[in-house]
Specification:
Largest sheet: 4 strands, mixed
Number of strands: 10
Mean pLDDT: 98
Shape: globular
Number of helices: 11
Strand order of the largest sheet: 1-4-5-8
Strand content: 15-25%
Bound molecules: coenzyme a persulfide
Order of helices and strands: HHHHHHEEEEEEEEHEEHHHH
Distance between the termini: 38 Å
CATH superfamily of the largest domain: Butyryl-CoA Dehydrogenase, subunit A, domain 3
Number of domains: 3
Helix content: 40-55%
Length: about 375
């Protein structure tokens, strides 16, 4: 398929592909086994300007958009979803600043983010607020010219590794979702520490831990947008980032498919390579169709986002849901093609399948995405009646 990428876009994809193949593939199994954050790979991505892709040029970035970010994320995910999660979560944490930051906040934070000098994390989820994002308990209480944060954020990607955190906390519970604030908290701020480091099923090269706020004081100028906008900022951030999760799905599915094809061509049973059997051929054909359909949707939605469209909620939820369901199906089927070999750690398939599962869960479960999509459909139907 030709997606009519520009020369620039092809160059970005090729750079990410080269880093993925040369630097990530050789170490991915070890990073997974040791549950190790990919510090060296992050440095290489930074040197190649990968962290600045979607950041405007006036803040030190390359001024590209969602499509370029998706191309990079796809290539990294094709090699290792743990590494690509560390990279993509950085964009997730950056969007609140990019979309809602003041000029002063943007000038202060974006150049270091664009250069990869400082990593970012997004802090929304809590023990009792996963799908129900408005149910967060962490508080941001105003005290003079400061906000005082108390509470614990859970399962935060890049937690501990990031220097900058965009955190959603309740400033006025009586106002429900309209009572939340989004604030920037820097690592090292007194009262801000890291709690439990999670041991995960997959994406084990990414860091996931708790953020603990105990009377952590941040200046008023760290509030993003206006008071009470925290929930909307979180929703708009997720609208922006979910297409990238779709790109992760396309990447890991492509990686798994390639492994299955390679295996099917060399594995001989009943005196011929198993790719000669129709049962295998149909599985491979179905995988190819699903991957191409997912890629087409993800690229189309990314282009729609880049067009400056105002309401991207439904489209980005569709890209996320479809491509990540494809990722789970394709990694499972690719492992099936490889049989016992796919199940063994000698091959990357079992890791790809473990890794893929999170895509149907994080940045909003695919069940929540379907709710979001249907809410938008209902709105459209009542507008058009
Ligand atoms: N863009 C702009 N505004 C939005 C919005 C969006 N994408 N989604 C919701 N809002 C607004 C609503 O319009 C509503 O505004 P009003 O108060 O003016 O009516 C307000 O926000 C509250 O919305 P709603 O009533 O739909 O909120 P709910 O509590 O029912 O929750 C869902 C909505 C389920 C969509 C939300 O909680 C969600 O996205 N959950 C998943 C969270 C998630 O992705 N977690 C992963 C953590 S990050 S890895």
């Amino acid at each position: 398929m030709d997606y009519f990428l520009t020369e620039d876009q092809e160059m970005i994809r090729d750079t990410a592909r080269e880093i993925a193949q040369e630097r990530i593939v050789p170490v991915r199994a070890e990073l997974d086994e040791k549950e190790e954050f990919p510090t060296e790979i992050i440095k290489v991505l930074a040197q190649s300007d990968m962290f600045g892709l979607f950041i405007p040029e006036e803040y030190g970035g390359l001024g590209k958009g969602a499509l370029e970010l998706c191309l990079a994320v796809e290539e990294l995910s094709r090699a290792c979803l743990g590494v690509s999660t560390s990279y993509a979560a950085n964009a997730l944490g950056t969007y609140p600043i990019l979309l809602f930051g003041t000029e002063e906040q943007k000038k202060k934070y974006l150049p270091d983010i664009a250069s990869g000098k400082r990593l970012v994390a997004f802090g929304l989820t809590e023990a009792n607020a996963g799908s129900d994002a408005a149910g967060i308990q962490t508080t941001a209480t105003q005290s003079g010219t400061e906000y005082v944060l108390n509470g614990t954020k859970q399962w935060i990607t890049n937690g501990g590794e990031a220097e900058i955190y965009t955190v959603i906390a309740m400033a006025d519970r009586s106002r429900g979702a309209r009572g939340a604030n989004a604030v920037i908290v820097e690592k090292g701020t007194p009262g801000f520490t890291f709690g439990k480091k999670e041991k995960k099923m997959g994406i084990r090269a990414s860091a996931t831990c708790e953020l603990v706020f105990d009377n952590c004081r941040v200046p008023r100028q760290n509030v993003l947008g206006r008071d009470g906008m925290g929930f909307i900022i979180a929703m708009k951030t997720l609208d922006q980032s979910r297409t990238g999760v779709g790109a992760q799905g396309v990447g890991v599915a492509q990686g798994a498919f390639e492994e299955a094809c390679k295996f099917a061509r060399t594995r001989v049973q009943f005196e011929k390579p198993i790719i000669g059997f129709q049962a295998i051929q149909h599985m491979l054909a179905d995988m190819a169709i699903q991957i191409e359909a997912a890629r087409s949707l993800v690229y189309s939605v990314a282009r729609y986002v880049d067009s400056g469209a105002k309401d991207i909620t439904k489209a980005s939820a569709m890209a996320k849901t479809f491509a990540t369901d494809v990722a789970m199906k394709v990694t499972t089927d690719a492992l099936q093609v490889m049989g016992g070999s796919g199940y063994m750690r000698d091959y990357p398939l079992e890791k790809m399948m473990r890794d893929a599962k999170i895509l149907q869960i994080y940045e909003g479960t695919n069940q929540i995405q379907r709710n979001v999509i249907c809410q938008a459909l209902i709105k459209e139907l009542s507008r058009n009646k």
